[in-house]
Here is the input.
Amino acid sequence: MAKKLLFPEDARTWLRRRYASQHRIWLNGDGTWPLRVLLGEPTEKTVAEDAGLVRQWVEAWTRWHDAGEVEWLERQWPRLGTQRLPCRLQLSCAADVARIVGEEQRYQRASQRVDRLTAAWRELSGSPLLLRHYDELADYPEPEFERLFALLRWLDLNRDSAHYLRQLPIEGMDTKWCDAKRRTVITDLLVAMRGGSEPLEFHELCGLRRPALRLRLRVLCPEARQRLGGLGDVEAPIEQIAGLNLRPACALVVENLETGIALPDLPGCLAFMKLGNSVGVLSRIPWLEGARVVYWGDIDTHGLAILSQARAVLPGLSSVLMDEATLLHSRALWGREPVPFPSAQLPHLTAAEHTLFTALRDNTWGPNVRLEQERVPWPYAMEALRRAVRGVG
Here is the structure.
């Protein structure tokens, strides 16, 4: 054939691609309608060469009973006479396309919900923050969408409630329902409703009270435990930790929880565990002033990035077991860092730490080498840790 003839399944395939790329903007009323799909334009010569194929093509479109309208034309040819041929499939709206590609119910549901949301909040009309959540609008069960709508309405009317999430007077609302994925939907829609462009932190945007940051602390000094009534393993909001009557000579910051739990008694010492990127909160604890702070994390690019972040708020902080010697000592225990830290700008590393970071990033010892804290042999780690606590080496 000089020009490919589109059979119904070919047209469906083409429409599926168009639907996948355009259905979100169609919800906004955009797009050029009617949409025309050209079905082919055989000549007399090409029909004569493959009359059977052309006959199948004509019959296939004669049997078309789906959405849209098949337009026909008549051709008068010298040898073949008058022939009635399909020329294009015309679709009047996005709902026609959705029906053809098997998305009719989802598109209709999403469209109705967009209409309801934009009727309630005019600012949502045409917002890309709304349209990016097509799948949620199309797939949420009705009770779930009603819960989302009620939540948006309540938050819009009570912008600074200072409630905890658990206190919101919305039927079916609980903290498990409001998981990370749904929070993204909620923040995007609230930002759009308020004329913003970028999502903000969830609790701040909603006017809700953020649960207190909790710290896990092990008191490794026997004398300090006596002053705390024997408590040696404490988890509490940071404000309460900051109010404790402690004056340690040394504070360890240990990234791995299991490692922190296994630490032995160390006079004059305590340990914070599993802070991750929140390590900067230690600057809010007044009794750490004057204490020696030692950080022990994974030897990988992210571990060194956290170390740099920690030293930005605690300038006197030192590191332990985060050096080339420790890395090479445990070569048999190396793993792979899934995704290295994206930036090389770590201004608070020492020269030796930055050299180690650069070597890891440049794959000096192999691709994405890492040594996780919990893999360092315990006797080796305890010897280095005791020296660090005493300020030796």
In short: The first strand starts at residue 35 and ends at 38.
